[in-house]
Predict the structure.
Amino acid sequence: MKKSTHISSHNNPNAAPGQGTLAVWAGEQTVHWMGSTQVPVAHGVSFGYKNIDEWLKVAQGKKPGHIYGRNTNPTVAAFEEKVKTLEGAEAATSFASGMAAISNTLFTLLSPGDRLVSVNDTYGGTNKLFIEFLPRFQIGVTLCDTSDHKAIESAIARGCKVVYLESPTNPTNKVVDLARLTAAAHRHGALVVVDNTFATPINQQPLKLGADLVVHSATKFLGGHADALGGVVCGRRDLVSRIYHFREITGACLDPMAAYLLLRGMKTLHLRIRQQNQSALKIARFLQTQPQVASVFYPGLESHKNHDIARRQMSGYGGVLSFVLKGGFAAVKKLLPRLRYAHLAANLGAVETIAGPPATTSHVESTPEERKASGIPEALIRYSVGIEDTEDLIADLQAALKP
Ligand SMILES: *Cc1c(COP(=O)(O)O)cnc(C)c1O
């Protein structure tokens, strides 16, 4: 980290840098090429050595360096370093997508005969792993009512290897008490994995609340520009090395160009999140006053079922809100195309506002019955707030809501 010579009122040289400073600087100085101030994109698949002894040492992990792009790459390593630092983790490893991060993590940690405890409201793809793929490998899965902490605790107490949590959830913004459930898991010797995609390390740091591993779809807020897919897991070094080893064999590695785009996006993470936190809260409050809106789900609202938990474990409530329209799916179909400042698309966390119903976004892989079982209304709209001016977004929604 570059030392500042600027004299400020809190000029303590030992103070840990803030998240904004880390978003800009972390990982950036691990790679230099001819003095380039920006991390170069190392497109080369392999890394050559003239000295065979040195090559051997790198291959054996006795000397830092790179061998082959499926294992490691300097641009990718800089991305991992930035996420690791922001999450306050010991180690991080990255993936081609968020789902690659989640599936590689779970298949590393779980073996036939093991059990996983999670909740009904997880990202649609994650839910598919739980109901379709893990059971095929004789891994037991218990999914609990997301709002029933006692039920989750008693499922954990019956014994499990992994507790998998997501908070806030996609798309209904349910909040679970991460410290409480982590403590329950640890009492029974289970590992805790938290999907922190919605909150980002700016709003919530699950490792500080006791979690063992944090996963991200870097595609969303971390990258922030909807131009690169990526995933990452960070946390305890011993666990991350096992997951890294599995990933170097499954080959679900992050592409260097995507790593570069994610790195560049992350430099403005704190600014984007600050703006999105503010806008989302204002928009959620506005929607609550609209007669056409049946309900609004946003953890920052006092009316949110677990607002107290959110207030305890989050420093901001995030850029995604969802709301249910009176008038069912027909009303959704009418409102969405009227929005001027929103991509109607299956994504979130970008600088542009993005809106859509769960059937074509978070739960596109689920059947209508599965969405119903997860308590996701068909008249729901997920609204991922971009960095546009808040007043323009509110005016846009107001116009679109007009009968
Ligand atoms: C999008 C998303 C994922 C999956 O990430 P991909 O990068 O699309 O594979 C996982 N979890 C959450 C919460 C998400 O929003």
Remarks:
- Residues 1-9 have pLDDT under 50 and may be disordered.
